[in-house]
Write a structure and sequence with these properties.
By secondary structure, the chain is mainly beta. It has five helices and 17 strands. The chain has a seven-stranded mixed beta sheet with strand order 4-3-14-8-9-11-5. It has a five-stranded mixed beta sheet with strand order 6-17-16-12-13, with no helix packed on it.
């Protein structure tokens, strides 16, 4: 089996509208027979931001945080476009969470928000899959967020200079039905503020991934569901859920 890591050659040009980047599907269909996508980055760590959209915090009955709420997902949770999300047998509620991913381009430590853009390589799509029942039961998020296959990323990495950040929207569809649709400008803590906060206590390495938080509209997945994360000018991440 051939393993293929896509990056800039699958870039989707931005449009004035919230375009459906279906052209990406046509490009992926041209992959060599037997080829499989890889995630577009190889992070030493996956840094995630919780409750970064006010409406999402409210829908789960939480107050918006006063500073970035940080948790980690293990690199073993990483999967690519087309890989299966495995629904664990010990969970009864697995949710999708569509997010904008930020890939770090150079080592970052004690970086100011004003300088943070210098440390960003580019952007990608992320599905921060969550075993919601276990997250609530445990009172902390390591198990509920950390299962193998619970961090879908891709299909491509688009460099920051090719992206008009202010027009980006995160859309999630489950079996063709739109569940999430929000501008990244609704984030309480922007990319600069997140990098400043995280790099004050943790060195970010090239290739590290930051998942910037999910908008409102999260909900359950079932075995057999197909979930798509779409971010205009970046691409479409699609995965199918299978029973574990």
């Amino acid at each position: 089996m051939k393993l293929v890591r896509f990056s800039l050659d699958l870039h989707i040009e931005p449009t004035a509208t919230d375009a459906h980047p279906s052209v990406l599907r046509g490009q992926l269909e041209d992959l060599p027979s037997g080829a499989r996508m890889l995630p577009p980055c190889c992070p030493s760590k996956i840094v995630c931001v919780g409750r970064n959209y006010p409406e999402h915090a409210k829908e789960l009955g939480n107050e918006p945080p006063k500073e970035p709420l940080i948790f980690l997902k293990p690199p073993s949770s990483l999967i690519a476009f087309g890989d299966n999300i495995v629904y664990p047998s010990i969970s009864e509620r697995v949710d999708f969470e569509g997010e904008l991913g930020v890939v770090i381009g150079k080592r970052a430590r004690n970086v100011s928000a004003a300088d943070a853009d210098e440390y960003v390589l580019g952007y990608t799509c992320v599905n921060d899959v969550t075993a919601r029942d276990l997250q609530r039961k445990d009172g902390q998020w390591t198990r509920g967020k950390g299962f193998d296959t619970f961090c879908a990323v891709g299909p491509c990495l688009v460099t920051k200079d090719e992206v008009d950040f202010d027009i980006l929207r995160v859309r999630t569809l489950v079996d063709g039905v739109v569940k999430q649709d929000a501008s990244v400008l609704e984030m309480m803590f922007g990319v600069g503020a997140i990098i400043q906060f995280v790099s004050a206590f943790m060195t970010l390495e090239p290739g590290d991934l930051i998942a910037t938080g999910t908008p409102s509209g999260v909900g359950p997945l079932q075995p057999g569901s197909t979930v798509r994360i779409e971010i205009n000018s970046i691409g479409v991440l699609e995965n199918t859920v299978v029973k574990g």
